[in-house]
């Protein structure tokens, strides 16, 4: 369990990272090639994101449309099982409300349990492209806090089917997302933290944050959480900027601010090789300061570029 790893580390900051399943059509080797060089830094766990199905409609003529499922990155559970088997570290699948009925969720959790996967990060998921706002499945969950509750029910042997009550119990340690710069839909940071607390009350045992580029925002967030009575470990999520394009993409997609010094450092770069170096140096400084502040784990978003993370880990761990 993530919480046990933190306790066993005895105050020493650990290294961990998140990967995306390979794109449909690629093989698992691309993932191993990304993970292999990072194992030297002894991550106690590796997160694997989950990507929801999207639909497109193909015209068949005569006004008929055929619905086609597009899933660019399937395979989260399989990748987790393969990671645990190959590296003997905990793999943590992300699990979503979106696209899942409660029954789907229960079956997903049963699969994980059979595979010896004892940690999950419970998330709502974003709206799909065809929706303006997030819409749950008819028999699904609206908020991550409800998903956390369902996982805890299963941990207590409570299945959806009445007849199965008090059958075998699962033993999941649940993490949830936190947003130092607030979630994009939240009217304020205070209200977002109010609902974050609801996820903890429902049974989540730790928080992983959205990426941020200004440590002060993280420190202020942690302080606010503690004031609200949230006592669980808060793990900072970090991402080194790797391309000039990300200067626009990251604030747009993740709703986070980039500090002016970082922006101008990147704007002045000749090419992406220089941008990569600026991104690594910025993230290395952030990491060193966070270690000094005593964070339990530094969690890196690799987004398919492990060589950047490796350079930071080498400088920091
Ligand atoms: P929630 O905690 O449900 O919150 C969503 C919004 O609703 C917030 O604004 C919150 O303030 C508000 N809210 C919560 N409860 C209530 C309530 N009872 N009443 C009113 N408002 C409420 N997405 C993926 O698709 N796959 C992934 O693998 C993935 N991994 C992620 C990992 C991390 C660490 C993070 C930070 C995000 C990840 N995401 C992933 C993105 C995430 O799914 C989105 O940010 C999503 O929009 C919100 O998810 P959540 O779990 O934070 O939602």
UniProtKB/TrEMBL annotation:
Q: According to the entry, what is the taxonomic lineage of the organism?
A: Bacteria, Pseudomonadati, Bacteroidota, Flavobacteriia, Flavobacteriales
Q: Which branch of life, at top level?
A: Bacteria
Which GO molecular function annotations are given, in alphabetical order?
FAD binding; methylenetetrahydrofolate reductase (NADH) activity
A Pfam match is: MTHFR
Q: Which reaction does it catalyse?
A: (6S)-5-methyl-5,6,7,8-tetrahydrofolate + NAD(+) = (6R)-5,10-methylene-5,6,7,8-tetrahydrofolate + NADH + H(+)
Identify the enzyme class. Answer: oxidoreductase
The protein's annotated pathway: One-carbon metabolism; tetrahydrofolate interconversion; Amino-acid biosynthesis; L-methionine biosynthesis via de novo pathway
Q: Which organism is it from?
A: Kordia antarctica
Single GO BP term = methionine biosynthetic process
Q: Which InterPro entries would you find in this protein's record?
A: FAD-linked_oxidoreductase-like (IPR029041), Mehydrof_redctse-like (IPR003171), MTHF_reductase_bac (IPR004620)
Q: What is this protein called?
A: Methylenetetrahydrofolate reductase
Keywords attached to this entry:
Amino-acid biosynthesis, FAD, Flavoprotein, Methionine biosynthesis, NAD, Oxidoreductase
| E.C. number(s) listed in UniProt | 1.5.1.54
- The transmembrane segments are none
The question of whether Amino-acid biosynthesis is a record keyword is answered with yes
- GO cellular component labels: cytosol
